[in-house]
Write a structure and sequence with these properties.
By secondary structure, the chain is an alpha+beta fold. It has seven helices and eight strands. The protein has two domains: 144 residues, Periplasmic binding protein-like II (D-Maltodextrin-Binding Protein, domain 2); 73 residues, Periplasmic binding protein-like II (D-Maltodextrin-Binding Protein, domain 2). α1 packs across α7. It is globular and about 55 Å long.
Length: 289
């Protein structure tokens, strides 16, 4: 289970010499592909500094599911996924976490492995907007309720403007829905959002102001995580390289490459990693369950 994120006090590179290590990152947007190409140079710098032979490459997919397919088929090695996608990747594509994003607080995996979360939500909410909830590769049993995408029927089996946490917030802003499930960093990361216009729904039925997420939330959810194929022979190398990159390029105050800032890329957002990420942490001993 993806439990509390842990911080490492030291990094040890374990890559053997004499052969090139492929590190193929799957991207899903043109902007992300461009940032990934810049990230390639960073990874090459790290490998050179530590006498490593690394071959980073950016592989563009059409969406997260397509990237999962590419990783399963050996056409790519890595992708960053959100909490829901982590569950799908682990359950349907035999993938495992490498490192996770840290936003300054511990995150927990709260997925109930004995219960289909989509069916539970469909039974609770009359109408919802959950993009791709009826996509065959996600709804593998065909039991995900169609009312979960009744508010955005064009997105039942594909991504759209209401995908992801930003999309969920946009759904609320556009009055498509009355409640949005987002992370505590979502409102602050939306440039045109006014915090005073929204409030949290607390677990005990009360309300809370934006910023009071510690005392007012519905659940603690998993951080986004970089995923790879289970049993990948280069997993330890990926962990070490990404932690080193996070230490050297995670500070957004510098003039060089910024891992956790996407604004340079045509005002992009959350490319490769969420912009609200503070650092990457090792969660290699945990799973999606």
């Amino acid at each position: 289970m993806l439990g509390p994120l842990t911080f490492l006090s030291a990094l040890v590179f374990v890559l053997g010499h004499g052969h090139a290590t492929h590190m193929r990152w799957c991207t899903i947007k043109d902007q992300e592909q461009k940032k990934c190409q810049d990230f390639e140079k960073v990874l090459m710098n790290i490998s050179s500094e530590h006498n490593m032979t690394l071959e980073p490459k950016c592989v563009q997919g059409s969406n997260a599911i397509d990237c999962m397919e590419k990783i399963k088929n050996g056409e790519a090695d890595l992708i960053t996924l959100d909490g829901g996608e982590i569950y799908v990747a682990g359950k349907n594509y035999d993938m495992t976490p490498v490192v996770a994003e840290s936003y300054g607080e511990p995150k927990y995996m709260t997925q109930d492995s004995t219960c289909n979360p989509y069916v539970s939500a469909g039974n609770y909410f009359a109408k919802s907007c959950v993009p791709r909830v009826k996509e065959a590769k996600i709804d593998t049993t065909g039991k995900n309720p169609r009312n979960l995408c009744e508010l955005c029927p064009m997105e039942c089996d594909k991504d759209g403007e209401y995908s992801g946490y930003s999309g969920a917030f946009k759904c609320l802003v556009n009055d498509v829905g009355e409640v949005a499930f987002v992370k505590h960093t979502t409102v602050a990361s939306e440039p045109n959002a006014k915090a005073d216009d929204y409030m949290y729904l607390c677990y005990n039925g009360n309300n809370g102001e934006i910023g009071q997420h510690v005392r007012c939330n519905l659940a603690k959810v998993p951080a986004h995580a970089v995923m790879t194929k289970k049993g990948h022979s280069n997993k330890a190398t990926y962990i070490n390289i990404l932690l080193k990159a996070s230490m050297n390029y995670g500070n957004d105050a510098g003039d060089g490459f910024r891992m956790f800032d996407s604004s340079k890329y045509a005002n992009g957002k959350d490319l490769l990693f969420k912009d609200s990420t503070e650092k990457l942490v090792d969660v290699s001993d945990q799973s999606y369950e």
